[in-house]
Amino acid sequence: MGEALPPPGEALDRLKAHIGEPFTTRLLSDRRGSRAWKIEGPKGTVALKANTPDDDTARDKAAEMAQEDNHLVRLTDAGAISPGYRVGAGVWEGGRWLAVRWIDGAPVWRAFAPARGPEGNRPSVRPWLLGIARTWAERLGHMHAAGWAHADVQPTNTLITDEGSAAVIDYALACGPSDGPRIPYRGALTHTTAPEIADALLSTTADTHIQAESPADIWGLGASLFWCWTGQRPVAYRDDTPREEKLKAIATGATLSLDDVRPWVFPKFEKVIRACLTPTPEDRPSSTDLAALLTS
Does the pTM of the predicted model rise above 0.85? Predict the structure, then answer.
């Protein structure tokens, strides 16, 4: 499959100096108008993505990648992300490409599988869960201190390393200070959308930009922890419910009771989740306060 859908040659030419030769390429995904590869060489490994040129959304995906590259440059300059995370970006025959440092880790849903049942209540699991929540809050805190919101906090946009730390990825939808022309932010994954974002989506036109703020990231963090630990999304609705109706349910601020869906009792972890899912944005803890709570 990787040979049938090779990475853009323009990107590989630029990346050779970083990863070295010979290198291998492996196609990781091909969906929603973009493809992603793991490119591994003797000097380093990167994650490369590019828009799918023959997809109906090719132009939108190329613009989104250009926007993410702009965000990575600005976030790096602000000290919000590691200078080595962005590896390179550019144009190719079919549109745009972007390469970032490879992070070994599992998406949160998969990583949380051992904790999702009654047998997860083990001495080794409890501090591991708290450590993930703490490092996740710390990563978001660097962005928030610089005036940014990630705006797409969800289980697939965070990887859990073997050391039990959270690594945040995918900054395409981030909302920063003094944003110039950009693709209007219209929310991200429905299941981790904060009530105030849901309300704004319901009350504005499709071309209106909604400026996400840090409390929405905190809600997304709490919703992700709730979902991946309990196996239940925090707001009740059917899978086939229209998105507008899902947003209306989220906008009320009502969530499932943790007491009813938790796989086992973990008061400290539950306290963190409940704090994140406070309906009123200004009543939620900051990422810094959250990290401090999880450290104590």
Answer: yes
